[in-house]
Specification:
about 110 residues, coiled coil, elongated, mainly alpha, binds zinc ion, 2 helices
């Protein structure tokens, strides 16, 4: 509701600015909430209690690496392509063993 006054009071101007800011913040909160929802849906990481001191050996299980840039892929965010270089995993991941042997000798 906007009153059509000839000269808007500074308070109204401030109010307009604040409401714009609030709208932006609300949008941000909504996005964060959606993100939290996505995180919450995932099963919690099963934390097996390490018998050995885990302080020194932190990299017990190797994370999947990108075949393109050989960087470790971040946990939980494994998409169809590498987040670092954009390598498409489907190019190498779903290849059956038989098909991989391209230079196989023909048995016929
Ligand atoms: Zn990569």
């Amino acid at each position: 509701m906007r009153s059509s006054r000839p000269s808007p009071a500074p308070a109204e101007d401030l109010h307009a600015r604040l409401s714009a800011r609030i709208a932006a913040l609300e949008d941000r909160v909504r996005r964060l909430e959606a993100r939290l929802l996505l995180e919450g849906r995932k099963p919690p990481p099963v934390r097996s209690r390490p018998s050995v001191s885990a302080a020194t050996v932190r990299v017990g299980r190797a994370r999947p690496r990108c075949p393109g840039c050989t960087l470790e892929l971040p946990r939980g965010r494994r998409g169809e392509s590498c987040v670092w270089c954009g390598f498409v995993f489907a190019a190498v991941a779903r290849r059956p063993r038989g098909a991989a042997a391209k230079t196989a000798r023909k048995t016929r």
